[in-house]
Write a structure and sequence with these properties.
With 263 residues, the protein is α+β, with helices and mostly antiparallel strands. It has five helices and eleven strands. A hairpin with a 3-residue loop joins strand 8 and strand 9. It starts with a helix and ends in a 7-residue tail after the last strand.
């Protein structure tokens, strides 16, 4: 079997560069381009370990050390937690891209040697990998950042009513929510209409006037005994407004007010 070491090295460098770039974008690391290149170059050198007679344990240890040095060279060293987070994202991204390579191997290849797929010589899969891998990484980065931004603003919320009822909700910090009770300046959180059907009676309803860009009117609100936002704390001077439309954010049934973070 003929192995083209220069091609193997170039392919390995390409994938290591993609992995490090993905980690940098996901974690929003502000690094220089030459650091990315240097880290990918070191990672590409590890391909030559495959030609050294080593046990599987030693090979694993060497690869782990090289990965650790890669992230330190690329992202620098601040503390152990910083390095471990970079390393964790490097390996998780490797699994995503590795799964994609495995899928291509199963679907289109008849024979595999390392990262190169063979079918009557160098097959078209090599070209497919070069073209599609950046696309897969781009989709992964886009979805990863979207999920990170979404769940960073999600909180578990417990509503405590005066009769002892507790309502558990999934809240989202909505910076666009500027609703206040004009009389006592209490911030108003919004919940889906179906969430509070059985948790209040007509005598507890407070009608609060509101005005937005597209509409104005009266918002039906109730005053809970307190609310507890997991990771933030308890708040008492709060109104719960019953939204006239269902909240359209996936998995969310409560829109929180930024004022609640001020204590």
């Amino acid at each position: 079997m003929r192995i083209y070491l220069d091609l193997l090295f170039a392919l390995n460098f390409f994938f290591d560069f993609l992995l490090l770039l993905t980690v940098a974008l996901l974690l929003r690391r502000n690094i220089k381009f030459k650091r990315l290149v240097l880290g990918a170059f070191l990672g590409a050198l590890s391909i030559f370990l495959l030609f050294i007679p080593l046990s599987n344990i030693l090979l694993f240890i060497y690869k782990l050390i090289i990965s650790l040095v890669m992230v330190i060279i690329t992202f620098g060293y601040k503390n152990i937690r910083y390095v471990m987070r970079n390393l964790l994202f490097l390996y998780s991204t490797s699994m995503i891209l590795g799964g994609f390579l495995y899928f291509l191997n199963i679907e289109f290849s008849y024979r595999q040697e390392g990262l190169i797929f063979f079918h009557q010589g160098l097959s078209i899969n090599f070209i497919v990998l070069i073209i599609l891998s950046p696309l897969v990484v781009y989709i992964y980065i886009k979805q990863g950042i979207a999920l990170k931004n979404h769940y960073a603003n999600c909180y578990q919320v417990d509503l405590y009513f005066k009769d002892g009822t507790v309502k558990k909700l999934n809240g989202f910090l909505d910076t666009g929510n500027k609703l206040y009770d004009p009389y006592q300046q209490r911030p108003i959180i919004l919940v889906n209409p179906e969430e509070l059907k059985a948790d209040y009676n007509a005598s507890e309803v407070i009608m609060v006037p509101y005005e937005s860009i597209n509409s104005c009117g009266l918002l039906k609100c109730v005053a809970p005994d307190k609310i507890h936002i997991i990771g933030v704390g308890e708040r008492r001077q709060v109104l719960v407004g019953i939204s006239k439309e269902k909240i359209k954010i996936e998995g969310v049934n409560c829109l929180l007010h930024s004022k609640l973070w001020e204590g």
